[in-house]
Amino acid sequence: MILRPLVFALAASAAVAQPATRSEVTAQRAAIEQRFEREKRECEARFSVASCLDDVRQRRHDALAPLVRREHELAAEERRARSVEQALRVREREVSASQDEGQKRERLLMASPAPSPASAAARTPKALSPEAAEQTRLKAEHKAEAEAAMHREQADTRQRRLQQRVAKHEARLKSRTKPAAAPLPVPGASAASSN
Question: Using an 8 Å Cβ cutoff, are 32 and 67 in contact?
Fold first, then answer.
């Protein structure tokens, strides 16, 4: 009987010679499951069923472990292949989109006249005079001061609301207090009075 698990493990390890495809993994898994079912039926005919079933389950687990690992490897390879294919498809779409964009730009450049120097000068920002720059700076300062005052006022309002909520909560807690309960009787005293 001791040789049987050893023979089973050796046969299982020899049978699991890294299957190359999912169908080979499935076939090997089916063979292991058949052996497991046959040994399970043999165990159920014996007197000590539990220990026999435990041994069979352990051998099944040991035999399936390399197959499960190989299934995970195959799945990882498939995921890598799919991601490479997806990256190639994305790259092709990007290239075609950039080519389309380039062709559109070419058509627009061919269709529109060259910009005149006057229109280019009109688009450049003009330098401000010192008085205008000072006015712009003062406006920005006033705006920043107004925003700061508004933020301070909002913070004060939030603080007042928080204090009101805390005070309301404390008042509710104070109004909820109950009178203290009467103390429990001493256990020894009740036993002595019943005698």
Answer: yes
